[in-house]
Design goal:
This protein has 191 residues and is an alpha/beta fold. Helices cover 29% and strands 18% of the residues. It has helices spanning 4-11, 37-43, 61-65, 85-91, 109-115, 133-142, 167-177, and strands at 15-18, 24-28, 51-53, 75-77, 99-101, 123-127, 147-151, 154-156, 159-161. The strands form two sheets. Strands 1-2-3-4-5-6-7 form a seven-stranded mixed β-sheet, with helices on one face. Strands 8-9 form a two-stranded antiparallel ribbon. The longest helix has 11 residues, at 167-177. The protein is elongated. It starts with a helix and ends in a 14-residue tail after the last helix.
Length: 191
């Protein structure tokens, strides 16, 4: 008999992969209006889970906190959810976390502070959040090993790429905080 979380995931017509023992290792339940903190708490029992996408669901900090004990979790999508800085603090304890998507959430500069010391982290998106430019640039300068997406931009080979009309502010901050920047795009900026 499958675990309750697997049964529920399959009933949602989710994209699920299992290992030889039938444990969930990959689960994409993004954009499902049936996914909430109760399901996430059940998923916390899936100790083999490596990849999880909860983007666009009703999960909150409370549900995500249950995932903080997953020893194998490497990739987590939380974009367009109700998570806050509290989630970043909880997830900073994950021993194998490599990829984290927090785009379109309520995270702020405090999330970057919590994630700065996660040595396994290699990809982070805080696109369309309340993270301020100075904090984003400081994070990028401290963690040059992370492909980092911020603002209304995108990451390209570890460099920050911005679509921003505040050209003077961006350039001054880049020069001061991130002197090794490899590329900067200021689409639509008046200089």
């Amino acid at each position: 008999v499958a675990a309750p979380s697997l049964q529920l995931a399959e009933s949602l017509d989710a994209d699920v992969e299992r290992n030889e023992q039938g444990r969930i290792v990959f689960l994409d339940v993004s954009e499902s209006d049936q996914v909430d903190d109760a399901l996430v708490r059940q998923l916390a029992q899936e100790t083999e889970l490596r990849w999880l996408n909860l983007s666009g669901t009703a999960v909150t900090d409370e549900g995500v906190a249950a995932l903080a004990e997953l020893p194998a979790l490497e990739s987590l999508g939380l974009g367009a959810t109700a998570v806050t800085d509290e989630t970043a603090t909880s997830l900073s304890k994950l021993p194998k976390l490599r990829e984290l998507w927090l785009a379109e959430t309520a995270v702020t500069d405090r999330a970057l502070d919590a994630l700065r010391g996660v040595s396994t982290l290699k990809t982070l998106s805080v696109w369309k959040t309340a993270v301020e430019l100075e904090a984003a640039l400081a994070f990028a300068a401290a963690r040059t090993d992370v492909d980092f997406t911020f603002g209304n931009g995108r990451a390209v080979e570890g460099a920050l790429v911005f679509d921003n009309t505040a050209a003077d502010e961006v350039l001054a901050a880049v020069v001061r905080l991130y002197p090794a920047v490899r590329g900067l795009h200021l689409g639509g900026a008046q200089m």
